[in-house]
Write a structure and sequence with these properties.
Layout lengths: L1 E5 L3 H10 L5 E5 L12 E3 L6 H10 L2 E4 L6 H8 L8 H8 L1 H10 L15 E5 L9 E4 L2 H10 L3 E5 L5 E9 L5 E3 L3 E6 L2 E6 L6 H17 L4 E10 L2 E8 L9 H4 L4 H9 L12 E8 L5 H5 L4 E5 L9 E9 L2 H15 L1
Parallel strand pairs: 1-2, 1-4, 2-3
Antiparallel strand pairs: 5-6, 5-7, 8-9, 8-10, 8-12, 10-11, 11-14, 12-13, 14-16, 15-16
Helix pairs in contact: 1-9, 3-4, 4-5
The structure holds adenosine monophosphate (AMP).
């Protein structure tokens, strides 16, 4: 089986690594030279919409997926006429546009931040498309700042501030037979809009877990998804508010490589290739720390009990995700301890 992947970043690299034991070959299209997926997949260095690259995918692959939502929808739609594409272009299109995303969520009865005329002040003005890791966003407190941000940012959406206690994410996979398996909720810490730390198996009530699973399941079913999808959530006094949809594997699910019986990457590969899902249960307790901008002392990280180091083969650059560390142990105390040690090493 050959799996085509649009995007050769770290998510593509980890997908290809998960595909290897299943003897699935990956063919990646990526415009950046020497991408993270390079050492583990065949790479076509071309724009995501490059006609020759797309023809090669259609020709040579049994199925095509994406590791990022920022691909031209026309390219995905062209492919979908020639080869199975998971997820469907329609779902990727929704996740590309913060306005379409909010409308889609509300159509499924899911709460979102108030937006545009509902927003009020203070507010966050975001670009509808293309922003990530907090880029393309401005926090505003006055109507003057609001007007300025709205005129500065391309294609803006204005969101009212959501008062949340913490940020959570729910990841789930839908298999070829329609089975949906979610992982336990993840609690996420962001700094400057970038994910820093994820805590697997967040301390939540069964009710909250059920609410989150209902949200992600509704999306997976509505868009007939075969594969993994993620919903970023705000945990508020009145329940869950959905912030963003990722039509793909997600940074807050990296801990599943060691911390779940089936990782998000293997689960995604299985689903898109028409194979049954694996068990999504936990293997002990886990937390994950992103390596952002610079590398810590790697020997010191590796010396932390339960620590697993993942490097993406990317050159260090400010605000760039260049790796992550997962700490997994049979007891939470060891994870908490390891997490503090790794935090101290990365800061
Ligand atoms: P996003 O790019 O939408 O994931 O936003 C980046 C981060 O900004 C989120 O992880 C939140 O910490 C914060 N944020 C985004 N939108 C809102 C909002 N409507 N209310 C409060 N905080 C927000």
């Amino acid at each position: 089986v050959r799996l085509g992947i649009l995007g050769g970043g770290q998510l593509g690299r980890m997908m290809a690594l998960a595909a290897r034991p299943l003897d699935i070959d990956c063919l990646v299209v990526e415009p950046a030279p020497d991408p993270p997926a390079g050492p583990v997949a065949e790479v076509i260095e071309a724009a995501y919409g490059d006609p020759l690259a797309l023809a090669a995918l259609a020709d040579r692959c049994d199925v095509v997926t994406v590791e990022l939502e920022g691909v031209p929808i026309e390219a995905l739609a062209w492919l979908a006429e020639r080869v199975p594409v998971h997820p469907a272009p329609e779902f990727v299109a929704v996740a590309q546009d913060r306005l379409a995303e909010k409308r889609a969520l509300r159509a499924l009865g899911v709460r979102t931040a108030p937006f545009d005329h509902e927003a009020g002040l203070p507010a966050i003005v975001k670009t509808r498309r293309g922003g990530y890791d907090g880029r393309g966003q401005q926090f505003v407190t006055t109507s003057r700042q609001l007007a300025q941000a709205q005129s500065e940012l391309p294609d803006p959406i204005t969101e009212g501030l959501v008062a949340f206690g913490r940020e959570l994410s729910v990841l789930a996979a839908r298999g070829p037979d329609g089975t949906v398996l979610a992982w336990p909720l993840v609690a996420n810490e962001h700094v400057d809009g970038i994910l820093r730390v994820s805590h697997a198996g967040a301390d939540v009530t069964p009710q909250l877990q059920a609410d989150a699973e209902r949200i992600v399941t509704a999306l997976l079913e509505r868009y007939d998804v075969q594969g993994v999808a993620t919903v970023e959530l705000f945990d508020t006094a009145d329940g869950l508010v959905a912030n963003e949809i990722a039509p793909r594997v997600h940074n807050s699910g990296h801990w599943t490589i060691e911390g779940s019986t089936t990782s998000q990457f293997e689960q995604h590969v299985r689903a898109v290739c028409g194979l049954p899902l694996g068990d999504a249960g936990l293997v002990g307790h886990s937390a994950m720390v992103n390596l952002i901008g610079t590398l810590p002392n790697l020997a010191a990280v590796l010396a932390v009990p339960g620590a697993h180091l993942h490097l993406y083969g990317k050159a260090p650059r400010p605000a760039r995700k260049i790796g992550h560390v997962t700490i997994t142990a049979t007891d939470q105390a060891t994870v908490t301890d390891g997490l503090e040690r790794v935090r101290a090493l990365v800061s």
